[in-house]
Amino acid sequence: MSQNDQPIKPWGGRFSEATDAFVERFTASVTFDQRLFHHDINGSIAHATMLTKAGVLSQDELQKIQQGLESIRQQINAGQFDWSISLEDVHMNIEARLTESIGIAGKKLHTGRSRNDQVATDIRLYMRDEIDAICKELTRLQTGLADLAEREFDTIMPGFTHLQTAQPVTFGHHMLAWFEMLQRDYGRLIDCRKRLNYSPLGAAALAGTTYPIDRHYTAELLGFTAPTENSLDSVSDRDFAIEFCAFASILMTHMSRMSEELVLWTSSQFNFINLPDRFCTGSSIMPQKKNPDVPELVRGKTGRVNGHLIALLTLMKSQPLAYNKDNQEDKEPVFDAIDTVKDCLRAFADMIPAIQPKKDRMHEAAKRGFSTATDLADYLVRKGVAFRDAHEIVGKSVAYGVQTGKDLSEMSLSELQQFSKTIEQDVFAVLTLEGSVAARNHIGGTAPLQVKAAAGRAKASLAGR
Ligand code: ARG
Description:
Blueprint: H1 21-27, H2 30-33, H3 37-53, H4 59-77, H5 90-102, H6 104-108, H7 115-151, E1 156-161, E2 164-170, H8 171-196, E3 198-199, H9 215-221, E4 226-227, H10 231-236, H11 239-266, E5 273-274, H12 293-316, H13 331-351, E6 356-357, H14 359-368, H15 373-382, H16 387-404, H17 413-417, H18 427-431, H19 433-439, H20 448-463
Parallel strand pairs: 3-4
Antiparallel strand pairs: 1-2, 5-6
Bound molecules: arginine.
């Protein structure tokens, strides 16, 4: 201990006065980077194992280090570890405690290593585990969507463009559109994981080290694909954090779009679905209210994740090689993006299978919006009418429908024939919503049989993960 009862700084040798108390707090990261402890310990054990193989540490020293670190892991897990701000970060806190408990061997652990390659290793290991957890949650959500699509493969709803009724689609088709967005997100995440999974350990401060280290061995011990190629790049690269946040931003953007639709659909104006009470909350003043808080909050949280992406891009912009203290600022955005994405995915994965579609309401809404107008035009074209003329004829029929409050399928043959003599009795087969969706019978189309097949392919792709 130093005079003022603070632990001695591991780098204190060349300093002649104590760190200013505010500067100490300002520069410390231990309040947030302590969540890396597990991976810091794993990285240290791999490093010590390699140093032993290289003859830098003895077998006995390695054993002490390993036991010491495992006991520190237990203390932290049990909430019995006293984190010290004056030891700055997770790395120095753990190393100082190790030395306190095992003595000289603890002081040797940092041989051939720097906190610069140490932290770059820790964050990659930590993110790799979190990415794997996120992959699982994403898969759970996608499974829910594919199941729902399969169940509702022929449930008719209005499809929209400009949020105006356009053509009928099936609810299953709509769920599979969401599925596809997430399918691309999953691909982006896997891609990020691949590029992240290289070991910077051994880059040391920036130039490498004079000890006979074996970077391939530590990479292998830690489950990395290989060591990184360039020591300067290794300690300064944070692309993986940016890539992760880019993935997270796009995912959140997708979930905000789903949220928006869920919010619309639960309104009494749309009234397309019911969300069970357990996913909603009430109002303290308006007794009738049931609010879709979960989707609203997911929609809102998109903002903070987008913010983290911009924070990281700006953090890295113009940084000279190699490590700079700026890089300490990578952690909070990454941590919060991870926490937010995990929570939002969990909420959605729980909620999606519980959606109760109101089939009659959606069917009625599709009918009210003249959603088979394009089908009538296509019918006329098949009978030899030019598309532009057909468009005009149907436009007039719709205007008549607006006046009389009738859907096209509810008009009599003679009513329809006011607009074109080409229309015959067989028109009614195409004017029904069922006829309309069934006719879009090609891959990617909304025909129920296509939706069923697409749901099957979706599930097969999940099974192959
Ligand atoms: N806490 C630091 C960080 O998060 C660890 C690396 C510090 N290295 C240094 N030379 N000050 O980036």
